[in-house]
Amino acid sequence: xxxxxxxxxxxxxxxxxxxxxxxxxxxxxxxxxxxxxxxxxxxxxxxxxxxxxxxxxxxxxxxxxxxxxxxxxxxxxxxxxxxxxxxxxxxxxxxxxxxxxxxxxxxxxxxxxxxxxxxxxxxxxxxxxxxxxxxxxxxxxxxxxxxxxxxxxxxxxxxxxxxxxxxxxxxxxxxxxxxxxxxxxxxxxxxxxxxxxxxxxxxxxxxxxxxxxxxx
Amino acid sequence: xxxxxxxxxxxxxxxxxxxxxxxxxxxxxxxxxxxxxxxxxxxxxxxxxxxxxxxxxxxxxxxxxxxxxxxxxxxxxxxxxxxxxxxxxxxxxxxxxxxxxxxxxxxxxxxxxxxxxxxxxxxxxxxxxxxxxxxxxxxxxxxxxxxxxxxxxxxxxxxxxxxxxxxxxxxxxxxxxxxxxxxxxxxxxxxxxxxxxxxxxxxxxxxxxxxxxxxxxxxxxxxxxxxxxxxxxxxxxxxxxxxx
Lengths: 216, 244
Fold this sequence. Notes:
The complex is a heterodimer.
Chain A lengths: L3 H36 L12 E10 L4 E10 L4 H16 L15 E8 L4 H8 L8 E7 L1 H6 L4 H18 L3 E8 L17 E2 H4 L8
Parallel strand pairs in A: 4-5
Antiparallel strand pairs in A: 1-2, 3-4, 5-6
Chain B lengths: L3 H24 L3 E3 L9 E6 L9 E3 L5 E3 H18 L3 E4 L9 H10 L4 E7 L6 E6 L9 E3 L8 H17 L4 E6 L2 H4 L5 E6 L16 H25 L4
Parallel strand pairs in B: 2-5, 2-6, 6-10, 7-9
Antiparallel strand pairs in B: 1-8, 3-4, 7-10
């Protein structure tokens, strides 16, 4: 036979368990309400909209193997890396349009990243960083293209050369401190863009910038 | 009387010397030999681009058929070789079949041939007419040993002259020609006047449809114009006194 004190203890524990379960259920409901309320909250900061600026794109033309400067008004971020990414995205957007004179599929998403590195890396950049000053010397741009872009790029000496040179010349036209350009595809070095244009070398951006309407 | 350890020391010294030589040879970058003295024979090198595992681009035609770039360049190379041989010009080709040949081997073939002209043959569906390209390396003075990857730098002036000659011949044959500079490893390592020739569809006035790259008549006209340019180039070489 169960002693009386054990029965009383069992009843008390059962009541406490039910009460605790109720409290936990209520806490869960309140946490859920807070979460939903947070998601519906209005933004605390206005989204950043870069002001529109004039950008010069060196647009390739397959018909006469030329690079033609084209000035457009684009929202350009302050950061040089983001600015380089934006102008190259617009350039490739032009190439992906239906009646492009240098048709290349892909569009802005073909530029994965653009990294800017000091040239030569080392002393001057390190000194500027130590003094807390921004680096103002020449820079190397590393353009990381997507594998899909390289795979879908038309194969040919002229078309591949024009793509590479127009990227280099557009970078130099909008960010004159970029003096050298290197290319990666999906973060890896690659021999050629689509079987012809050499992607292993460092391109001197100033040499690729043509005078108006000239041939590269 | 000789000490017994002298022999082993000598062997060790020789081994060290040999090891040092091997290490030194590994640290020296690849070089192309200095331009040798021009030979009496006028040699032309034809490089049919791509081949084997490297098909190059795809050339579609209006009749729905398509062929890889490697097949077209080989056919053009064979046709041009025949035309040049018929004119008494000695031709060296980098490939005669559908074989995989790397760029260094192609350049080495051209450099060993001591060629007076090197043509790298390509084809593309992009653009129109004939695209002529010379290496984008900055011109330099020839030296005894040229870095392999920039060996063409010493020949840029002659390559530009050859491109001008080819341009004239193609234009005279009624074709549209564009000239440009490019970074193409196979010609960047050549120690000869070198031009990359890319054949693209021909757009003629009054004809809505462009002529396919694969069109036999078009290919023949291109080959004949290139052969005429090489013959003119040989005549110029004779006039300059670099050929007997």
